Amino acid sequence: MDELHWQSLAVRSGITRSPEGEHSEALFMTSSYVFDSAEHAAARFTGDDPGNVYSRYTNPTVRGFEDRLAALEGAEACVATASGMSAILSTCMALLKAGDHVVCSRDVFGTTRTLFAKYMANFGVEVSFVPLLPVDGWREAMQDNTKLLYLETPSNPLCEIADMQSMATLAQSAGALLVVDNCFCSPALQQPLAFGADIVIHSATKYLDGQGRCVGGAVLGNQDLMDQVLGFLRSCGPTMSAFNAWVFLKGLETLSLRMEAHSASAMQLATWLQSHPQVEAVFYAGLESHPGHALAKKQQSAFGGVLSFRVRGAQAEAWQVIDATRLMSLTANLGDAKTTVVHPATTTHSRISANERLEAGITDNLIRVAVGLENIEDLKADLARGLNSLG
Ligand SMILES: *Cc1c(COP(=O)(O)O)cnc(C)c1O
Predict the structure, then answer these.
(1) What cofactors does this protein use (predicted)?
(2) What is the pLDDT of residue 352?
(3) CA distance 181 to 27
(4) Cβ(205) to ligand 1 under 6 A?
């Protein structure tokens, strides 16, 4: 298996065939497992026999998804979780304790910010938020008790790119762990562990599923770290359901084809938007004008499906463009075959102060599009309807 190329691993790894000889991955819908004898049960419970006990601990379908995703991220081990948020929570609960300090990018998923700012803080974990760029800001925020650096690259919604190698060097120098949420790129486009990250986080809900059906997540890293995360899951319970793992296994088979298509369409849409007279600025790392373009080229094999742009005007004009769409779905989700459009300032980023929004570049005239798999001409026409009405 190790010698196979990435696309082959996406289809072939993580399969354990049952005695029925099924070709597609089997869906093991069972909460518990039976033992041959009392002695056998005892051995399972002590761990001397490594087999299944209970599906909060292990499930063959979930393990298939974990093994396949681990192969695709180049990770020693993977722990599947009930959602992307529980992947982050499990990582924190397993690896942090009261009195520890975390430095987190300001430009992360809104709920991730709440998890750190409210819930981790409630349990005595100190958190500092810094802009994703530059690295110096992170260095200045670090303390003697800093245990974890947390970021997303590309960032949402402005597609800023972090230099993962520099961040890994910084983390290492302080004995801290670098955690990268790889949701936007998926392992088809970027493998953070290869750039020195210690842990990769996924919301499987997004591109790993790819069709907006199931909620799930994953944590990846070396065996020792993942044993600690698995320990938390076993005792505290946010495990992935077997059914969702089965859906994600199917999603992984087509991941590279979909990410190529998302990226190609996003590139075309970004280029077209850049030339539109009613568009003030476009944020997409695939554009040569983007400050993170060279770094994105080094770290990613393509630029992904998410872009944002500023229309000429303010909130009213942005809303006009969004409300004129008929094809795109007005929803904050992303990573779907269906293109989604959202106004970050009044939705995904509405809970942070107006000042913080401005600092982060989330202006009132900004629109985010997560490009799906529809025909690109239909997507252009959908945005052109509103944009042309602004002039
Ligand atoms: C959606 C998302 C999450 C949270 O994942 P859920 O599966 O919704 O819990 C975390 N990080 C990023 C970047 C996301 O887009």
Answers:
(1) pyridoxal 5'-phosphate
(2) 84
(3) 28
(4) yes
